[in-house]
Amino acid sequence: MTSPNTPASPEVRIGIGVSPGTAFGPVVQVAPPVRPPADEPGSTDPEGDLERVRAALAVVAADLDARAAHADDTAQQILKATALIARDRGLAKAAGAQLAKGVGPAHAIDAAVEQYAAQFEALGGLFAERVTDLRDVGARAIAQVLGIPAPGIPKLSQPSVIVAEDLAPAETALLDPALVVAIVTRAGGRTSHTAILAAQMGIPAVVQLSEATAILAGTPVSVDGDTGEVVIDPPVELVEEHRRRRAARTQALAASTGPGRTADEHPVALLVNIGGVRDALEAATADVEGVGLFRTEFVFLSATTAPTVDQQTEIYRQVFEPFGRRRVVVRTLDAGADKPLAFANLGHEDNPALGLRGLRLSAERPDLLDTQLEALARAADLTGADVRVMAPMVATAEEAAWFARRVRENGLAKAGVMIEVPGAALRARHVLADVDFASLGTNDLAQYTMAADRMRGELSDLLDPWQPAVLEVIAAACRGGAELDKPIGVCGESAGDPLLALVLVGLGVSSLSMAPSKVGLVRLALARHTLAQCQELAEAALHARTARDALDAVRSAANPEVTAIL
User: Fold this and answer.
1) What positions carry a catalytic annotation?
2) Are strands 205-207 and 180-185 parallel, antiparallel or unpaired?
3) What SS3 state is found at 432?
4) What's the CATH fold of domain 46-146?
5) Fold that domain 11-31+152-250 belongs to in CATH
6) Which residue numbers in the chain have pLDDT < 70?
7) Does pTM top 0.70 for this prediction?
8) Is the CB of residue 223 less than 8 Å from the CB of residue 18?
């Protein structure tokens, strides 16, 4: 029987950890988005009200652009893409149709947004990813027409844990890590904007936490971004344990420097993912071996006309220069129906995630690819950088050969492919025959292997990177690479998980590219295991029945010095 003086057991909730680390602090709840008032009068001047709606959307777009100017490159790309949503003429037109029916401006914006949201969710893929951004645009526009403050995170006076239904990029991008010690959301997914930006900033984060928004403001909570565990009113012992773990991790990381290697000196290149010049300047000062994924979309997404060779050359020069002789792996334009460009709109697609995206767009518009390759070659010559160029969404040996030929015709020495399609992984020995290397995009690879939209948070269990089926597909790609002695890297989120990194190396991966904040732990984990041990861990994961079993098997067999600080 429990004594009246015995403290109640703390409440433990489990979500999905998407950004590593532990934190403790009081909860600050983010107010829900602005909704149209129930008593809003109907429109008596549809044309005049439509101008108000357009003006409100223009203000939202301008505000997002202003925020982008102060954000890093990854956040900047997301914010600029969100500003494009606010500028979409179709959104204003849909609101206008509602106004013509006599609906008030705020309700008209809301109805237009929900109309688009339903379409985006039905399309899936990266369109579904934009639903949170779309609704944020709508809420901000509604606030503008109502003349009230836009939704957002309250002003913080002390280090706090931010809790919300979900966070839009406009809020996440400008968080101050000194005041925001952790992020918890009820919605979101492993590759949501919240997850990506939190990892980039080194803020522990948990998504898909049941009833997160019901936690009372001011309640102390501990957050574990590795395990997804959130403890409400945690005991002092747990808070102290987390502090000790953080201190031990900090001490271990301080002693872990230099190139990535296993305990028996097997090299594993540790690289970073970047999205533009600002990211490059910051990452180049870090203890990394180069760039494993330079996303070039930022050059194109906000342009109304195709960027010229000269314009692109100058941007690429600024990215390459800080890295000196270190490698920079460039992904050519990854756009298409799911990331439409004003100057390369190929029309409506019912299922854009399976449509003309990535290299398929380049095949339809080879002029865009050739211009980009020419600019990359010029920038490489100007800087002397070790530039390696890879194509996204390659599915067949014919596509890989076509891309490699165009890369070399434009004066670039090293051509590679992204393996994001299971068909390419299964036929890797043929797909890699005409290229020099491959990089596994594990986010899309998991999505296509498990037939689960990676932006649907409720499907996160299927998209767990520990899914044995996904590991089997990765193993097949690595076997194909080994047959031809072609290196295989990983540039998806899996690369930044220290335990999963051991498995990937055991499967045959030779380089890992991740957010800069994750490099230290991965380096440390590798240094505490031999290649043979990594191979044993990989076998254990492959033979597991479930994703949870795979993780548990690897955690129990890994070096305790590593698991103790994770």
Assistant:
1) 193, 491
2) parallel
3) coil
4) Enzyme I; Chain A, domain 2 (1.10.274)
5) Glucose Oxidase; domain 1 (3.50.30)
6) 1-9, 74, 122-129, 301-302, 336-353, 355-356, 454-458
7) yes
8) no
